[in-house]
């Protein structure tokens, strides 16, 4: 048996931060980066707000618009914000229902960084007269962590 352990042939991808990268062509092709949490011994909330999220209706191909709110309590890792921006932008030409987009984004982030807790709220603008709001979360919020309300008012129409 060799004294030198084999190195994994699967190298970690290089971070997108600090360099020019191509826009991903699909959510599957998008690289979602993580960085070490410098406060991993402290429970706190991180919030990302994406008020101009877009995707396509899988049936008509028309654009759908949402205001996404992503809150999480990090463990060992943080989501790198440039990579998140590129990942969310990869949905612009992606056809999927509101529910699928919202839950898939939450699951991808959770799978990537393994947070202590995560929730995503997808507040979708009406198409066909019906707004659809989609909510997903992992587990239970750690005790004592402050998470502000998402603050996105339900759709009320005109006036």
Automatic annotation (TrEMBL):
Major subcellular site: cytoplasm
Compartment annotation: Cytoplasm
EC category name: oxidoreductase
The reaction(s) this protein catalyses: 7-aminomethyl-7-carbaguanine + 2 NADP(+) = 7-cyano-7-carbaguanine + 2 NADPH + 3 H(+)
Molecular function GO terms recorded: preQ1 synthase activity
EC number annotated for this UniProt entry: 1.7.1.13
Residues of the active site: 57, 64
Annotated binding of substrate, by residue: 79-81, 98-99
This protein's UniProt keywords: Cytoplasm, NADP, Oxidoreductase, Queuosine biosynthesis
Pathway(s) of this molecule: tRNA modification; tRNA-queuosine biosynthesis
Pfam annotation, one family: QueF
Residue ranges of the region described as Disordered: 1-20
Entry function: Catalyzes the NADPH-dependent reduction of 7-cyano-7-deazaguanine (preQ0) to 7-aminomethyl-7-deazaguanine (preQ1).
Family note: Belongs to the GTP cyclohydrolase I family. QueF type 1 subfamily.
Record protein name field: NADPH-dependent 7-cyano-7-deazaguanine reductase
């Amino acid at each position: 048996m060799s004294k030198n352990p084999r190195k994994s042939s699967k190298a970690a991808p290089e971070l997108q931060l600090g360099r020019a990268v191509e826009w991903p062509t699909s959510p599957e092709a998008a690289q979602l980066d993580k960085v070490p949490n410098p406060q991993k011994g402290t429970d706190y909330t991180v919030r990302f707000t994406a008020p101009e999220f877009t995707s396509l209706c899988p049936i008509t191909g028309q654009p759908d618009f949402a205001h996404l709110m992503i809150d999480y309590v990090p463990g060992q890792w943080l989501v790198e914000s440039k990579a998140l921006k590129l990942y969310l932008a990869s949905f612009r030409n992606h056809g999927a229902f509101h529910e699928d987009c919202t839950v898939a984004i939450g699951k991808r982030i959770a799978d990537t960084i393994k947070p202590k807790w995560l929730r995503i709220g997808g507040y979708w603008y009406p198409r066909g007269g019906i707004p659809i709001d989609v909510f997903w979360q992992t587990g239970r919020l750690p005790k004592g962590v402050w998470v502000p309300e998402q603050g996105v008012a339900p759709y009320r129409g005109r006036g």
